[in-house]
Amino acid sequence: MRQGATPGQQPAWDLARLNYEPMQPADIDEVLAIEQSVYLHPWTRANFADSLVSGYDAWVLRGQGGALMGYFLIMPVVDEAHLLNVAVAAEWQGQGLGRFLLNQSVARARGLGMVAMLLEVRPSNTRALEIYQRYGFKQIGRRKGYYPAGNGQREDALVMRIAL
User: Fold this and answer.
1) Which residues touch 69 (CB under 8 Å, ≥6 apart)?
2) 34, 76, 79, 109: least buried by Cβ within 10 Å?
3) Run of H or E including 35
4) Distance from CA of residue 103 to its chain's centroid?
């Protein structure tokens, strides 16, 4: 069975025909469109632009026709990588692309000599939390009131880590 397929079903994408490449400033509009469509509290254009200017390891995944399917950004810090952001466009979710991007982010971190990867996730983002747990990330802490949650409220962040 090819990656992205569920039993009895062919995936809508073929890994060999996808373009996986470093994120460029010209990608930010498309990245921002996905970000705004999949997150209630999305990053801003400035967040992405600043990440690129800072030299963070940022990658995009495009389909055969050039459509942006997903992206991730990692920030190396000493010997640990911080997964800052990862997203798959809504129409491509549930087909294994999130796992592919997670695999790629871990491979990039290893290639940069990192020994572990950290991330924060909202407890309410149960889908992402489940993916990270299945992947092997373990909760190592909680940041109280880390994320905006609307109506002037804040939501904690679960801090997760995986050894590379």
Assistant:
1) 13, 18, 61, 62, 63, 88, 89, 92, 97
2) 79
3) helix 28-38
4) 10
